[in-house]
Amino acid sequence: MKQSNGYFLVSHKAVESPNWHNLTVSGKILYFTLCKHWNRYRGKRTWFTRSEKQLAKDIGVSRITISRCKKSLMRYGFVDTAKTRKGHYTRWEITYLK
Question: Are 48 and 41 in contact, with CB atoms under 8 Å apart?
Fold first, then answer.
């Protein structure tokens, strides 16, 4: 995996969106965490996989909180998700970075 330079890209379009204010703090932290993971694969593909359990551990919240935030991010158009074939991981795509 590519070494981090201590920063990651977040779209101005996303944080300046009127929908940004509808997100909870946990939803915003999840979005930033997803952008951080997406940046690791930038240029190789437009999506990445990460389980809700792994994201909960990354952020320090419950899996239920991740699930609620995921629904909110999807509702407001910040991300698209799909389950992988095995069903254990979520395939994430940051839609506001397009």
Answer: yes
* Per-residue pLDDT tens digits for 34-81: 999 888 877 678 889 999 999 999 999 999 999 999 999 999 999 999
Instruction: Collect all residues with Cβ–Cβ distance below 8 Å to 82 and sequence separation of at least 6.
Output: 90, 91
Conformation bin of residue 39: beta by default, left when phi > 0, alpha when psi is -120 to 50 = alpha
Residue 67: CB atoms within 10 A of its CB come to 14
Instruction: Say which residues have a Cβ less than 8 Å from residue 28's Cβ, sequence separation at least 6.
Output: 20
Instruction: Return the structure tokens found at 63.
Output: 């899996």
pTM here? 0.86
DSSP H/E element including 48: strand 48-50
Is the Cα dihedral 32, 33, 39, 42 positive or negative?
A: negative
